Amino acid sequence: MGSIRRLDATGFPLLLARLAVGIAFLYYGVQKIADPIAFLKSIEAYNILPTEPSWIINGIAVVLPWTEVLCAGALLSGIQLRSAALLTSGMLMAFTPAIYLLGSSLVGTKPEFQSLCDVIADCGCGSGAIPVCPKLATNCVLLVLSVWALVSRSTRFRGGLIPGVG
Length: 166
Hints:
By secondary structure, this protein is mainly alpha-helical. It has one domain. Helix content is about 65%, strand content about 5%. The protein has 6 helices and 2 strands; from the N terminus they run αααααββα. It has helices at about 1-10, 10-35, 35-45, 55-75, 80-105, 130-150, and strands at about 120, 130. It has a two-stranded antiparallel sheet. Strand 1 and strand 2 (about 130) form a beta hairpin. Helix 2 (about 10-35) runs antiparallel to helix 4 (about 55-75), helix 2 (about 10-35) crosses helix 6 and helix 5 runs antiparallel to helix 6 (about 130-150). The radius of gyration is 17 Å and the shape is globular.
């Protein structure tokens, strides 16, 4: 436990967590903003959200990518770091089980989808159809890093990449 605290005090795990989660959310958010119709269709494919009234799912398709980009900006700049880390953690806690449910619902629907790790699906992240298992692993790593950014007590690299800025 003491070695984890000493490592956290250096600030480098926090910086790594901020950069990794920030870059990932910036990339995925921009991909969704670039093709909102594809993102809307991928949300509908989950069959989790109500399609009527249509403004609910349409609103989510518009607001969610911009929320991801804003959180990415906050993580990368260090401004409102804990708020951004809390939001990204919450999003990942929603996205990860949804991807698991989507993948498990597709097992057996095609001859090549014999197990969850065989399933290739469009998770809605903006990357197109990808294998489900690596995406789940990526989300779990991002969740751990996001939670680290949330709970880290380090004050180094908290205010921005440049000391005294942010």
